[in-house]
Amino acid sequence: MVFCMSISPIPSYMMSMYVPSSAASQKVEENDYEYQLIMQELALYGLVPSGDKDTDKMRLETAQRMEEMLKAQSETTTRESIPFDDIMNTLNLTITGNLDEDYDTTIDELDYEIYMAYTDEEREYYEALKDEVEEEYNSAKRDRISFSGATQLSSINRYMMLGI
Fold it and tell me: Are residues 65 and 92 in the same domain?
């Protein structure tokens, strides 16, 4: 009887613990890492992971798109149209797109014009413009508040429909 012995740098008791690394096992580790990132980002959005990577990845992408849409929408509302822009143009004022800022600038200019008016007719004209600006400003503020609430409600409804 001849026994063949091999000499190995790994002791025999450790052979069962040795698992060769392969591209497949590295891919699983990367996927797990990617899924861990997905779960972390879902948590940032306040969403609970479903346990399925593909589903959670799709939910995360949807939440990110929704956030981008809301961000873009809020940026457009910050550059809103100014309801009294025609009066600002008449007074040769620059429109910034910020309702509060443009209102303050316009009222300041109208107060100056009222103070500097030479005639009663001129004073009445600028006072009428000031009244119109104040009315349009207050109306725009009310509309903005109700629109903001409606926007938030529609966003919540979209999330609910998407199951997010």
Answer: no
Burial of 98 (0-12, 13-18, 19+ CB in 10 A): middle
- My answer on whether 100 and 62 are in the same domain is no
Domain count, the chain: 2
Using the predicted structure, report yes or no on whether residue 6 has a pLDDT greater than 90: no
91 and 134 fall within a common domain: yes
Q: Round to whole Å and give the CA distance between 164 and 159.
A: 5
pTM of the model: 0.42
Q: How many CB atoms lie within 10 A of CB 102?
A: 23
Place of tokens 């790994």: 10
Tokens matching residue 68: 């981008």
3-state SS class at 139: helix
| CA–CA distances in Å: residue 154 to residues 45, 110, 146, 160 | 17, 39, 12, 10
* Structure token pair of residue 123: 């004073």
Q: What is the mean pLDDT of residues 62-81?
A: 70
Domain residue limits at 89: 85-156
| Residue pair 84/97 in contact by the 8 Å Cβ criterion | no
Torsions phi, psi for 4 (to 5 deg):
-100, 125
